[in-house]
Write a structure and sequence with these properties.
By secondary structure, the protein is an alpha+beta fold. It is about 35% helix and about 25% strand. The relative contact order is 0.20.
Amino acid sequence: MSPTADWIPVDESAALELARALVRLRTVNDPSTGSSELPAVTLVAETMRSFGWEPLITEVAPGRPNVVAVIEGGAGAGPTLMFEGHTDVVTEGDPSDWSFDPFGAEVLDGRLLGRGSADMKAGLAAMIYAARALELEGPFPGRLVVGALVDEEGLMLGAKHFARTALAAEVDGVIIGEPEGGEVCAVAKGAIRLRLDLVGAMAHGAMPQHGRNPIAAVPGILAGIVELQTGLQEELGEHEHLGWCYLTPTVVAAGDLDQMNVIPARCSIGLDIRTVPGVDHGALVGDIVSAARVHARTHEVGLDYEVVDDRPAVDTPVDHPVVRSLVEAHELVHGERPPYGGVPGATDGTILTRDAGLATVVYGPGGKWIAHQADEYVEVAEIGLYARVYAEAARRFLTTGQGVTR
């Protein structure tokens, strides 16, 4: 099939300029400097108002508001589709690691350069102008929701807040504009952040017999975690789009290097656990804690634990209308069907699925592996192409997706 011009016209130059304006804003959440998403929220809201939309701005945390607009189709009852993106970005790190100004939003050799260009201000701009294009095209059944949420790079407070709203309960499908390198990602890995705290008794390093050293239990616990990971991988195999499950120790903290003659009373282990559909998170945490307790008891130390965050895997059926509409739209614009893929981390879609039961799919401009790196960029041409796909996907979903169920 060859591409056709039978798509909804989108103001691609305006989408690019909005993306550039967003990239110029340093929207890293950094309370120590007062930096937050607020400047981007203000810009997005102003853009929405210029279209005649009435954005709802809701503070999720001090100085950190979500902005959401609802565009009524004007052609009677129908489903509700959401375009979702986030306004925060991760830190740029050391500016000397960059070969250009991370917030300069320079366009060079067909690329928009800067922090957040791919993750995900280009996707957000493309979605906003796709929604505007659909509105200008004429009446459509149902309605379109455009949400720019905060804190995706943190604890996803914006998505958690939106998921509790009455509007979220009325959404029938969500397209997340994260960069996925042209893949349609209906699946995403689950994530658990687990903290283990070993509790012993402090003593002088010269008299260890008077203390209970929590560090002594760490090697056995870490070895046990490796064994659990191996068993999980053997049981589940490698997922077609998500790869392997991983139980990764990322933090071991105890003692003080300035007082190496003191046996510490506490030692903490942090685990970043990544799962695939089918993994029972509660059972897995139970297995890890049970194995850790064995080694803690051997060394006569206590064990406390905390599930810091629990994000189940996403597994939206590929025949769901929101996925099907997106695939068909990509094929219309590009002349070929897109590859399916999986999200290696978590997105706001993870929370919207977990907390609101929404069908989510991830698809957005930018390379799949470029996020959070120095010299981040997005191809300028992709902004317009993705905007076309978003607009066409919305048209198809809203005109053929009536009666979808979640």
